[in-house]
Specification:
The complex is a heterodimer. Chain A is mostly helical. Chain A contains 19 helices and nine strands. In chain A, strands 2-3-6 form a three-stranded antiparallel β-sheet. In chain B, 40% of the residues lie in helices and 32% in strands. The chains are: A mainly alpha, B alpha+beta.
């Protein structure tokens, strides 16, 4: 619970700061309050830079109950004064907790009630591919990729004990898959369909078999290494280094993400545990990498982050993510995928809730860049990004209109 | 009304230069921000009370990650409009609705 200071104390502090008499300060504040009240009365919003925004919001008539008598009453519709603090103030006030990040804690016991519905919902809502859904669809996959990359390293210190587990499970999956394992593999296959920018060739049934072969090669390699370790129990040091070159070899054999994902699909518990670790360690990276330059901030990408979530953290508005994409276009192949550990340059906005003309143009240019990318890879969805660019700056849309698809432009300008 | 408009209106009604009005407004909300940062509540007559509130940490299900998440505690600004402000504006026609 917070302490309070009286208004007199406040006036004292302010007049000390401004070299005004307390009487003047007092009058001034009263007048300021009056002006705010009158402006609110005319339906205006009052924005105070670096602080927040006051506005009047209409609350419709609603049913209520007298808490004392239990009697039902109708509360008439009325105006409500709301104050919305801007990001700067929110950050200042939240200082004691600023270093805390939300953490994935994996599956909960009561999960069976809600989990079953939630993923289904997120898949059902594909009809309107807004940037939000686009990124939310891709995020889980992104995490899996990250986990997959980290895992060989994690396994190495204990090659003899840990290795056999994922390997044997991987072996089990291809040959006679139990229904559960098949489901998991199917889910990943589905996600891959959305994600095939990564692996150009769409995974058909034929290449499924090929990926099983690749999985079998991985397993054989793992077993070979195991035998190797067992024969040389004293040379675990050297064997660790010998695993390292082995991994790239596997990659070069032509197996791609799908194989590894199938292997890891079966060890979801491991995944959850690892992504926990990942978010903890990368949280620290964030702080280290938070050094500011004039116009841009460096940001180290943590596991599970996407441009969408970074924009939300940084600007308070996830829809500004193309701004980040545009600033890092040269380092990003795919706006839907940012690898953990990468460093991004985040453009600095004066006030993300009240963009200047220049800043709106920057965001619009970002959407145009995304549009260019999407047009090459998912042409059906590209028009939404063009529309979004227009909603930030018509001028930018006009400038870009020569290089875009006509039908897309018609869609972007109609609304 | 933008920040600029506010400064303009205050400078007109107080008959002081705009730079001066800006300075005053800045220091008022600067001090207010400092107090809130130090977890101190402030009442401004005719406007309302600013104080801070701490939201407890909580557990949520994130469909994005398909997993449960721990949301850390957070301290936020809590504004309660003064009763005079609230009542004066309750049934005003703003033209918006």
């Amino acid at each position: 619970m917070s302490d309070k200071i009286t208004f007199a104390e406040l006036v004292e502090k302010i007049s000390a700061k401004t070299d005004q008499s307390e009487q003047t300060t007092n009058d001034f504040i009263h007048e300021l309050a009056e002006i705010i009240e009158t402006s609110l009365g005319t339906g205006e919003k009052i924005s105070i830079s670096g602080f927040g925004k006051f506005e009047l919001r209409w609350v419709d008539e609603r049913k209520g109950r007298n808490p004392q008598t239990g009697e039902e009453i109708t509360i008439p519709g009325q105006n409500k004064v709301v104050f919305k603090p801007y990001k700067a103030l929110r950050q200042r006030v939240n200082k004691p907790f600023e270093n805390l990040d939300s953490q994935l804690i994996g599956d909960e016991p009561d999960e069976s009630i809600s989990t079953d519905n939630a993923p289904v919902l997120s898949f059902q809502s594909t009809s309107i591919p807004t940037p939000e859904q686009a990124s939310s669809k891709k995020a889980p996959l992104e995490e899996n990729l990250i986990v997959e990359r980290e895992s060989p390293v994690e396994n190495q210190p204990l090659p003899v004990r840990v290795k056999p587990k994922p390997a044997k499970k991987g072996e089990g999956a291809p040959v006679p898959p139990t229904s559960e394992e098949e489901d998991l593999a199917w889910v990943f296959e589905q996600k891959m369909q959305h994600q095939d920018e990564l692996s150009r060739d769409v995974q058909s049934n034929g290449s499924m078999k090929w990926s099983y072969t690749a999985a079998a090669i991985v397993v054989l390699l793992a077993i070979f290494l195991l035998v190797f370790f067992l024969n040389n129990p004293n040379e675990t040091q050297t064997s660790e280094t010998s695993t390292l070159p082995a991994q790239p070899n596997v990659a070069q054999l032509g197996e791609n993400q799908v194989t590894d994902q199938e292997v890891y699909a079966n060890s979801e518990a491991d995944q959850a545990a690892r992504s926990d670790d990942a978010s903890e360690t990368t949280g620290e990276q964030d702080q280290i990498a938070g050094s500011e330059t004039d116009r841009e901030i460096a940001h180290a990408v943590a596991g599970g982050e996407s441009l969408w979530t970074i924009a939300e953290d940084q600007y308070g508005d996830p829809y500004l993510w193309p701004l980040i994409y545009n600033a890092n276009k040269n380092n990003l192949n795919n706006p839907n995928l940012v690898a953990a550990g990468n460093s991004l340059q985040l453009p600095v906005l004066e006030n993300s809730e009240n963009l200047s003309q220049e800043e709106r143009k920057m965001v619009a240019l970002g959407y145009i860049s995304v549009y260019d990318w999407i047009l090459e890879n998912q042409p059906d969805n590209a028009r939404y990004y063009l529309w979004a660019a227009g909603s930030f700056s018509q001028e930018v849309l006009r400038d870009a209109s020569e290089n875009v698809n006509e039908a897309d432009l018609a869609f972007a300008t109609q609304g | 009304m933008t920040y600029k408009d506010l400064i303009e209106r205050v400078s007109e009604s107080r008959d002081i230069p705009k730079t001066h009005a800006r300075e005053l407004i800045e220091s008022i909300f600067g001090v207010l921000g400092d107090e809130l940062e130090n977890d101190t509540g402030v009442s401004i007559p005719g406007l309302g009370t600013f104080k801070t509130k701490t939201r407890e940490e909580r557990k949520v299900y994130s469909p994005h990650h398909e997993s449960y998440m721990m949301i850390p505690p957070k301290r936020v600004v809590d504004f309660t409009p003064s009763s005079s402000l609230k009542d004066n504006l309750k049934f005003v026609e703003t033209g918006d609705e």
